Here is the input.
Amino acid sequence: MPLDAKIPDGPLAEKWEKHRFELKLVNPANKRKYNIIVVGTGLAGGSAAATLAELGYNVKIFCIQDSPRRAHSIAAQGGINAAKNYQNDGDSIWRLFYDTVKGGDFRSREANVYRLAQVSNNIIDQCVAQGVPFARDYGGLLANRSFGGAQVSRTFYARGQTGQQLLLGAYSALSRQIAAKKVEMFTRRDMLDLVLVDGHAKGIIVRNLVTGDIESHAADAVVLATGGYGNAFNLSTNAMSSNVTAAYSAYKKGAYFANPCFTQIHPTCIPVHGDYQSKLTLMSESLRNDGRVWVPKDPKDKRSPGQIPESERDYYLENKYPSFGNLVPRDVASRNAKDQCDMGKGVGETGLAVYLDFEDAIKRDGKDVIEKKYGNLFQMYEKIIDSNPYETPMMIYPAVHYTMGGLWVDYDLMSNLPGLFVLGEANFSDHGANRLGASALMQGLADGYFVIPYTIGGYLVGEGSDKKISIDHPAFKEASEKVKTGIKKLLSIGGKRTVDDFHRELGGILWEYCGMARNDEGLKKAGTMISELRGEFWENVSVSGSGREFNQSLEKAGRVADFLEFGELMVRDAFSRKESCGGHFNEGHQTEENEAKRDDENFSHVAAWEFTGVDSEPALHKEELVFENVELTQRSYK
Amino acid sequence: MNWLFNTLWSSIGKKLFMALTGLCFCGFLTTHLIGNLTLYAGKDAFNSYAEHLHSLGPIIPIAEMGLLLLFVIHVLTGLTLFYKNFRARPTRYAVNKNAGGRTIASFTMPYTGVILFSFILFHLLQLHFIDKTGTTIYEIVSDTFSQKSNVAIYCIVMIFVGLHVSHGFWSAFQTLGADHVKYTPFIKKLSLLLSIIFGVGFGLIPIYISSIL
Amino acid sequence: MTNSETKKDINLTLKVWRQKGPDVKGKLETYQAKNISTDMSFLEMIDVVNEDLILEGKDPIAFDHDCREGICGMCGCVVDGRAHGPEQGTTLCQLHMRHFSNNDVVVVEPWRSRAFKVIKDLVVDRSPLDKLIQAGGFISANVGGAPDANAIPIPHDTAELSMDAAACIGCGACVASCPNASAMLFVGAKISQLALLPQGKPEAAKRAISMVKTMDELGFGNCTNEAECEADCPKEISITNIARLNREFLKAGLFSTVAK
Here is the structure.
């Protein structure tokens, strides 16, 4: 059955306005009769909950951490894009739209991306009104920088802490609604299941992480804003608690999972340095604006970087891509770093790093200017690596950073399950096969502040009306029993390997076979390995404590159990996409110059997977992507 | 007037009391020190200064009542804050280490405060609330400092005065919100200077008196 | 230069606060952390100790952590009497073991404050910080009504000062390190961020009054201007912000038209 994204008719630029007019409105007095559950308090969830409450809905919001302010959106450094064209450098809504579609390697939905570009400007206005202290020029107007492969300066930033400031903005709006009693906040809750009644999403089951209680919550609609699944790789730049469990439980209840193999590997991360390492640290890719990437020309050259003369350095990005140079998109930069290391030219103790050198920039602009721009990043680097980037080139290596794939949603951001809305990184909709820098913050806030407040009303008074459900409904009891059984099972295994140990092994498999470059043979092998590992997990994992207490070991075990199932889905999706595009690089499909080679004829679609059972093959549904406004081209950054 | 009570009874309001009364004491100590400097000019100068003060009529008793009021406010508010602060951490740390913000002066404020409180009572009983018929204030002072123990007590206490003022003075400005990138460094230096002036200025008097006896 | 020449493994004795729940008595227990690479972060060191505990069938040490890159504010313990450990301007997750020596005895305790109840071991309940923000740490600007972002110019220096205060990660180290367990730096940072911006001025008086009232009710101590908070703050937020809070509050309480 082909998937219908319900994209409104009409010219691209008018679709959203037309659709907003056509959507049914909820009578202001009736809004207070609707209860909405939001899971996740990042940019998408936090902004959605605040805005829905402002409109008058009753909202219950849930997060894993001890405070809604800690969601991982907080870690985004570089900035947020908007088509303001404040710099008069030729930016426009159309250009932001086009760049995003092209950057995503033509695997995103035109209409969604255009809407994103349209509302991008409102986001900046809203954030400034909330007190987000964006960087400003001396005249008091907002400053912009060019970022992540864009040729215009459209990125708004607050030092290297843009995500933090935007999240604190959303958090403050949310806090205001909590104080007004329009939002009820539930912290330290892990969503473990979605509850469906007659096929509609009507509630969730959560575990109270402090008491261990399994709680049921019912509502008229459920909004998931639970982030990405990058931690399937174990080592990623995601926070430790970022996980796929909420989205995966929805998948197991029938929501389609779209393009799980589209993962973004960020080029400028601090290299791995030991087995015990718990996470990787990203450094804003704004560093590539001034830093030059290089490796020694000779793989046998093991001299320290300062001793390698200019003529014996290979500035491979500048050489290969003269017009974009060090600013090529993330996937291209990452893959090239891997290629260099595969050729043995990698540097550092592990040979899995390349240099990012600021020597020329410091010579050109002076240390003060560089310090002003990147001081906090240099400091962070020095803290971790114990080496001074003003004197010695930084070492960087790619790391898993963002996942473009996610639960399938239509134009209204509703999944195939009526009443289940998915926002932010948790959905798949806007970034195609590769996300441009500074676009994740934009998408999260666009979804939460400007899309869901309109589209959810259409569902509530449309197909979702007259379906009031309370937690007394048998569906809640059934779901919570299932959750309790699952927990009991995990606690009863009493094996000999820790959860972290399994996670490390799963991460190793995915990184090796489903990372920056994939091939059919490796993916096949990975599928088998993950399946075996999953088998061993359920026989040999050791989880301490009980379910009726604060038990971090148990929390992790549940998440890794889901990652193990999800890993297989990821590998299966990668295997079935016989082309290369964006973050999905299949070695069997590349141009003569080793660039990703798309197959638009056969794979210009969204691959949405339907769960059919843990041990049976998921069913594939395709949403054909129609490009009426942009011409599909081979991406070239030469 | 609920707003006034709520503002002044808040944690910041209580500190406002501490700051304002503390600054008044700094003012009082300054005039007290200037007056006491007449001791260096000899017996007659000091006695005539005292007489001049008493000839001012009701101003002195009024000022004394005012000082008493400030004193009561400063002490009671200080004790209240100390108690509340103590209660704010029911379980103490097993290991305490200075992070770099605390100074001996800031750390000992409540304790130097209690010492000063006791000293002021002692000082008043010794030099103020006594039978002054048939004697002069200079004689009372020189009698007092003829005892070495008194000289020692006064000198030691003046070190505590210096400590208390060195944190208290700039702290009062911080509490009042009088903070400015251009002036705060000056206030901090002034705080130190004032504490030295009070400590040394008052501290030398007993030594001087006992030395000329 | 890198530290590869000096890299080594170290052994530590940990004395960690263990407490089963909020109403149970806790105590310091001793653990050995063996073969700890000096490249590890402090939290990775606890991970290693915990893996051993799990394999021995013992209860691992509960501690809060999330982003592990110093921005989420989730982690934090008092290490040898210092909130977030001995390094200036560093969260616990960014504290590396190269700052410790072989055979060190390290005492790890939870944040201590009447306002923060211990949930388990090193995990405390910091929801009072959220309550403070709910009391007024926001600008009431509904989505939809915002004017163009460049409509009101904000001087560069003002925006920077506001950002200095906004850098607060809400970890609670200021409360933990304050000799009086006061939350003045946390409140001061939020009040400052918003009071400095033209967008925050309309509500400045109401915000200051309400946040200070809530702060007092939650059982935090009072500021005695000792600046321990500033010294332990992982984002090095200045007590200048406390002075601004005092100013904003007194101005609001005594001279504004907001009556409360």
In short: Residues 552-576 of chain A form the longest helix (25 residues). Chains A and B do not touch (no CB pair under 8 Å).
